[in-house]
Amino acid sequence: MAANIPQLDNAKLQLVQELEIEMMSDMYTRMTAACHKKCIPPKYREADLGKGEAVCLDRCIAKYLDIHERIGKKLTQLSMQDEDFMKKMQAEQKT
User: Fold this and answer.
1) Residue 49: which of 62, 63, 35 has the closest Cα?
2) Three-state DSSP class for 59?
3) Separation between Cα atoms, residue 19 and residue 15, nearest integer Å
4) Number of C-beta neighbours around residue 4 at 10 A
5) Is 38 in contact with 60 (CB distance < 8 Å)?
6) How many domains does the chain have?
7) 26, CA 20 to 30 Å: which among 33, 34, 35, 83?
8) Backbone phi and psi for residue 94, each to the nearest 5 degrees, phi listed first
């Protein structure tokens, strides 16, 4: 049985890695769509981005990533609080 433990850990690790890739891909797709819609007019006048479009995209992406990071930190904090609360409830039930 001890031989199966590393396999489970590797399987869990791979699953977490795949979920992380999927989550980052989804975030990139949403960010790209949102910033494109906001910063680039539907009718292209030139093949290259204009200065205003490039600045808008830079700001949009920076804001999007900042908010994504803030939300991630807040969710982690809430998750830790929930975990602590559950441990506390289980300890109270045992006594």
Assistant:
1) 35
2) helix
3) 6
4) 9
5) yes
6) 1
7) 83
8) -75, -25
Q: Which two tokens stand for residue 11?
A: 């399987």
Tell me how long the chain is.
Answer: 95
Query: Where residue 81 sits, what CATH number does that domain have?
Result: 1.10.287.810
Quote the tokens at residue 15: 């699953």
From first to last of its 95 residues, the chain has per-residue pLDDT tens of 445 555 668 888 888 899 999 999 999 999 999 999 999 999 888 889 999 999 999 999 999 999 999 999 999 998 888 888 888 878 877 76
CB 62 within 8 A of CB 38: no
Q: What is the pTM (predicted TM-score) of this model?
A: 0.67
CB of 15 closer than 8 Å to CB of 22 = no
